[in-house]
Design brief:
Elements: H1 6-20, H2 39-57, H3 77-91, E1 101-104, E2 107-110, H4 111-132, H5 141-154, H6 178-185
Antiparallel strand pairs: 1-2
């Protein structure tokens, strides 16, 4: 794969930022399709995971970064996310980072592969958040198609186990859009809305 994932990551991050701006305080304790996260924890993970990929892009050890951001006030998620996504843009600006080997939770990979994996994760959690919030915005279908392609390549259903943070694939409903197909491939139930 020789795709430069940075433009897709930037679009995914912008989509997340727009969605975060719609979160109302009373929604923070609500459930999400990601069973172990409520909305507040999902926001913490989105921001923390974004900080992690910024550290990876800067040549640091992503495994040393906790994929959650703590200490953010309830009204501070939009600003916190904007700050970490700006870090990602800066740390991945050098084209050489795309071919440099980096350490990520699933192993060592060229930067372009690692960042593509984070596009997949970001897009998946975008769907989680969108569902939890009652689908306040339309989501970019091209991002979901890219993420689904990556998910099929790197997460075959038969190779998932305890150390993979995604469950076994479920069935997507007939006529499902790319986000619902991605959610199903990654073990969510796109038939149920939070």
């Amino acid at each position: 794969m020789n795709t430069d994932p940075r433009p897709l990551y930037a679009r995914a991050a912008e989509q997340i930022a727009a969605l975060i701006r719609t979160v109302r305080p009373e929604q923070l304790a609500g459930p999400t399709p990601c069973d172990e996260f409520d909305v507040r924890t999902l926001l913490s993970h989105l921001a923390g995971g974004t900080h992690r990929i910024a550290v990876v892009g800067a040549g640091g050890d992503g495994l040393a970064v906790r994929p959650f951001l703590d200490g953010v006030p309830d009204d501070g998620w939009a600003a916190a996310y904007d700050e970490v996504r700006a870090e990602v843009e800066k740390s991945w600006a050098d084209d050489a980072r795309l071919d440099a080997l980096v350490r990520v939770p699933w192993g060592e990979a060229p930067g372009r592969i690692a960042l593509s994996g984070y596009v997949m994760e970001a897009v998946t959690h975008t769907w989680d958040l969108s569902e939890a919030l009652g689908r306040p915005l339309g989501l970019d279908p091209e991002l979901a198609e890219f993420a689904l392609t990556i998910a099929h390549r790197v997460l075959p259903d038969e190779q998932r186990g305890d150390d993979v943070p995604f469950g076994s694939a479920t069935s997507a409903p007939e006529g499902a859009d790319a986000y619902e197909r991605l959610a199903a491939w990654l073990g969510r139930n796109p038939l149920s809305r939070a």
